[in-house]
């Protein structure tokens, strides 16, 4: 039993949690690599099969399905006034190698479940509701991540997106053709009234606060670096300490510095050395070379700038102290995203209305919603993942929490799709 | 031009440096992997070919050659009194993969060159002089290192030595048979009057002091450890700093601690983290596991004990602070060796007599001489290696330095083989 069992929504308008869980289990078998993991790289056969399956369900549910030129799939439930811009929700179906089964899929299937719930209640919305499956969110097969939503939001051109290649040199355009998802619809260029995405947190914050819902206020900006320290390999037994040019000792000082920089800006900052490669990496040789990666995140770009400056100064200092040469390369620069205040408020209100413990939270990772924030009012609903599952990367959750997230997402979407007093009236009627 | 050119020995009794260098170049071609490196793993075809070549030269020089049960080869030049125990010199012919061409070979060939020099001068010694080629000094093919000399000196039984297997499961006994060096002579069990070994320093100390000869007073003892820190892999972008169990940050603290322990006992201590393996070692994941090796050296076992205690306490502290589990395994324990005062003095005197700048030095690595120190008066002559060659592991030297080392070795051997006043008289006559 965990902190989130026995949730009782305070309103009658809610999704069918069992149906949603059943769909998730069914989609989770496509590309499954274990009971709880799957490998469904973008535009592979398994990604195609998952797309086909969801499209079939959406068609059954009466949606009009369209596919755009980068392979994003839109499943539309018409509104009363199709002259108004639609309200959009969704996520992605592609995964990392051995990725979590809820990452992406729960946002897509929650959207579909919401459309079915509205169908069952025969509820009509003012604006159309569309559920989207974005292409290549993970970036595991085609670099960069959030590519489909990025092209949609104008962060990249369509040509850029279609010409990305995977490790085997396969072009994204050809991979789309192969699985039948090179669509005729133009990518982007149309108005979206609002975009709300439900996603599993993939971090420990909600669980440790016993909150079942996170109202995501921002996504951390990110800076990535690759730093190489070059000293001199020499024999461990015969090179006096004061004559060494030990690249690994320099790297250790940088790892401590990165940790200090993170602590200095805690709790919102994340600062990580995730990768370290040592040469020659032999027990009796002083290391001559060490390459490490640094990953900084913070929701305020000004703080990221300060972290960047401290790192650069630290590398110069550590290299000088240790008689080392250094190579410094910035590999990632993503600006921080502040989500739309109206979307965040809608998520908070929906959670309160439904009686779910809710807290504001900052997303560490970039999601498709960060791209959508460029062109529309965007927001996110986070649900907790549970450390008790023992999975290193914390990708597991429960049927109850997924149902809670879908309920909150539904009410937040309706608040946008119904407009003003009509939302309250509709919920009261339901 | 380097600091060691233009050496002029102060006495006429000296080896033929050109002949010695020519022999070294010839042996260096057997198993050569580059102009200056060779791969001549113990008891492979190339090791066998190098042995055959040196045995042929020794036979030509009139030596009586015998091979013992572990494959050690003894090349004996008789003395006036064969009832006295012999004076022994030598080293090894096996190498590391891409090892230096002078490591081992220069000690063997210097010994042979000394016998030829004495032949040419028709100098008779009181005691027999024997040049030995020890089996499997490097430990690169068969674990452990200094195996042939170790069995000779009683550190290991013969059965232990013969039953060692390489990575392919080949037994050392079979490898010896295959190249024809499973000899009939018993291994060890006889008196040796003294053992002196010439070796390249493989460190920067002599070069930086512009000393052409090192009188090796001791070999550092050694402790080796493998330490694993186990935390929890988690996402770099969404795991707050204070909730992390970052194995790599713990490893960085240990690397700094190892460095501090080394500096605390400088200049004689060496303390090295040479190997670090991180899991999952991905740029956007907080590392869940880090394995590192620690290598401590010091010529005083009491200091090594202190270093050991500080490391063990540090691992407990770092693990506790970081919420980490730890695994601690000691992999190496070699006691320090103090070489025989008479042998050290003989080397110093020979260098002074010949006019070579000489300094006392401590060996970082274990050599066959460390095994011989168990059963006889043992000492070593180091010659410098030159960093100007740009090789990472500093295995290069010059013909002049090798000649200097061989001259010092010869005079130090004669001081033992001639006894007392007879050495001075013989040198004066020569």
- Principal-axis shape of chain A equals elongated
List the quaternary state of the chains.
homodimer
Radius of gyration of chain A: 24 Å
User: Which structural class is indicated by helix and strand composition of chain A?
Assistant: alpha+beta
Helical amount among residues of chain A, as a percent range?
25-40%
Show unreliable segments of chain A.
1-10
Tally the beta strands of chain A.
18
Percent in strands of chain A: 15-25%
Largest interface: A-B, 61 and 62 residues
What do these coordinates show?
The structure is a homodimer of 430-residue chains. Chain A has helices spanning 17-28, 45-60, 105-121, 147-152, 158-162, 172-179, 205-208, 247-264, 301-322, 341-354, 368-372, 399-418, 421-429, and strands at 37-38, 64-67, 73-77, 87-92, 99-100, 129-134, 194-200, 213-219, 221-230, 234-235, 270-272, 276-279, 285-286, 289-298, 325-334, 337-338, 358-363, 377-383. Helices cover 36% and strands 22% of the residues of chain A. In chain A, helix 1 (17-28) packs antiparallel against helix 3 (105-121) and helix 1 packs across helix 12. With 430 residues, chain A is of the alpha+beta class. In chain A, strand 2 and strand 3 (73-77) form a beta hairpin. In chain A, the strands form 4 sheets. In chain A, strands 2, 3, 4, 6, 7, 8, 16, 17 and 18 form a 9-stranded mixed sheet that branches. In chain A, strands 9, 11, 12, 14 and 15 form a 5-stranded antiparallel sheet that branches. In chain A, strands 1-5 form a two-stranded antiparallel sheet. Residues 1-10 of chain A have low confidence and may be disordered. Chain A contains 13 helices and 18 strands. Chains A and B meet through strand 10, helix 8, strand 11, strand 12 and strand 13 of A and strand 10, helix 8, strand 11, strand 12 and strand 13 of B.
